[in-house]
């Protein structure tokens, strides 16, 4: 069996084509969030976007390519938004820095829980798992950079705790999106994660 194609056939070059391309990605995202991965078919996406199935196939060879495009678009948007936020965390007090790192991990799953839950569920099927893993591994370095100005207040070798923080934050947030989304919405998870991070870094968790 031939591997499923998860890349677009082509990218839009003109503004009218860009509108159509973006409409297909937006429609796919809405289907993912409202009905889940199983509901995403090329026919449903074309109908929801208000375009012909032929127009869809000009750009996307499969439902997997549509889902992958949603993930790629969200990752690009998230990274653009997070860079200035993370830069700013280097300039704040230690308590605010730890709280800010937790907020970075929680915010998208809290604000768009159904969509991010379905995106995570689809990662392997659309060949995006390794790419997302590489991005998340880079979060270790971000944690160290944010906390570096507060080295004197942290235990020796706090850098080694960065990967534990990353795994703890991402794993807990993903599990909450699947099983207990209410803990994302009411702030319970963020508060507990902040306390856990403080303990991991050798701070007073009170």
Automatic annotation (TrEMBL):
| Keyword Transport found | no
Q: Which residues bind DNA?
A: 41-60
What InterPro entries has UniProt attached to this entry?
Homeodomain-like_sf (IPR009057), HTH-type_TetR-like_transc_reg (IPR050109), HTH_TetR (IPR001647)
* Keywords recorded for this protein, A-Z: DNA-binding
* Sequence ranges assigned to domain HTH tetR-type in this UniProt record: 18-78
Q: Which domain of life is it from?
A: Bacteria
Which PROSITE patterns does this entry report, sorted A to Z? HTH_TETR_2
Asked if DNA-binding is a keyword of the record, the answer is yes
Q: Name one GO molecular function term.
A: transcription cis-regulatory region binding
The protein here is known as Transcriptional regulator, TetR family protein
Organism whose genome encodes this protein: Enhygromyxa salina
């Amino acid at each position: 069996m031939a591997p499923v194609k998860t890349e677009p056939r082509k990218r839009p070059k003109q503004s009218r084509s860009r509108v159509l391309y973006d409409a297909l990605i937006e429609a796919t995202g809405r289907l993912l969030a409202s009905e889940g991965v199983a509901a995403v078919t090329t026919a449903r996406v074309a109908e929801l976007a208000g375009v012909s199935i032929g127009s869809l196939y000009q750009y996307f060879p499969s439902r997997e390519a549509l889902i992958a495009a949603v993930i790629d678009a969200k990752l690009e948007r998230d990274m653009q938004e997070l860079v200035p936020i993370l830069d700013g965390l280097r300039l704040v007090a230690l308590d605010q820095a730890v709280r800010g790192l937790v907020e970075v991990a929680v915010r998208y799953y809290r604000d768009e829980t159904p969509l991010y839950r379905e995106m995570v569920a689809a990662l392997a099927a659309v060949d995006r798992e390794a790419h997302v893993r590489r991005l998340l591994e880079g979060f270790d370095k971000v944690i160290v950079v944010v906390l570096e100005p507060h080295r004197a207040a942290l235990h020796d070798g706090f850098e080694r705790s960065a990967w534990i923080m990353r795994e703890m934050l991402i794993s807990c947030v993903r599990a909450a999106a699947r099983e207990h989304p209410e803990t994302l919405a009411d702030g319970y998870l963020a508060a507990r994660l902040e306390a856990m991070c403080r303990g991991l870094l050798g701070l007073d968790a009170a």
